[in-house]
């Protein structure tokens, strides 16, 4: 028998899959597809970041650095050295994971503001390297990235493909791939959360001292989740590079890191499906507020501020709690 929490998460995964299946019926043009594909890739990235922030209680203000490293490793490996995309993504994830382990061991000994500053510094260092190594990365001007090549099949947003006898466009093919990747990212995160590793992470979040007393190797688990979240970012960064076809050091910028962490906080720390909602909202808001022109940034900030004031636990946890409370009241009234 599945426990109640696992049943809830499995139900959430099924609902997410149904939404992704139905959504193309409401996407009217390639721009809509491109926006949703970007949402899916970034949502998968913050699902990994949520493991670190929401479950282990460790902050990271430089996570876009790992996203950028994955993007540039894939771009350089495929564009400069002619690798296929899959080996580039896998090797890139191993390299970025190793870097995350090397930098994570010392900085994760820090706490609070000191940890925030250390992760921020890591992100800045990566961004500076990507900006300055012109011969390798193209510097501030960026570099082109070839189309995604999986098993000899090139996936371009401009192409036409046949899937089970049905002809689809390049952006539709990318949508299918991004949806599968997002579902896989969520599935892995949910399984990790319910595993002994997930329980150890939650104990670290609750109290490192108490976790250490009962035998949890806090340094080991903090490093492990830091590496896992960095691998998420690396793989998604590589896919993002292939989808965009061109990357600049902006993918590793401080602004991108803040966007990631804001998505986690807005959607609900510790809520896997909540952070997906946070990613969707923050990607859609600029489109919705575009008509406000110079007031766009002010409106954007005002909406975030009001959300955090009235929904401090995040969008999805607050909405879920409100619906549950309403249902209990209704059930009580009927009784």
TrEMBL record:
InterPro entries, per database record: ABC_transp_permease, LivM-like
Query: What Pfam families does this protein's entry cite?
Result: BPD_transp_2 (PF02653)
User: A GO molecular-function term, please?
Assistant: branched-chain amino acid transmembrane transporter activity
**Is Transmembrane helix found in the keyword set?**
yes
The domain of life for this entry's organism is Bacteria
Bilayer-crossing residues are 37-57, 64-83, 89-107, 114-130, 173-193, 224-243, 258-285, 297-316
Q: Which GO terms describe its cellular component?
A: plasma membrane
Instruction: Please state the protein's primary subcellular location.
Output: membrane
Cellular compartments annotated:
Cell inner membrane
Its keywords, alphabetically, are: Cell membrane, Membrane, Transmembrane, Transmembrane helix
Q: How does it sit in the membrane?
A: Multi-pass membrane protein
**Record PANTHER family:** BRANCHED AMINO ACID TRANSPORT SYSTEM PERMEASE, HIGH-AFFINITY BRANCHED-CHAIN AMINO ACID TRANSPORT SYSTEM PERMEASE
Report the protein name in the record.
Answer: ABC-type branched-chain amino acid transport system
**Organism name:** Marinobacter algicola DG893
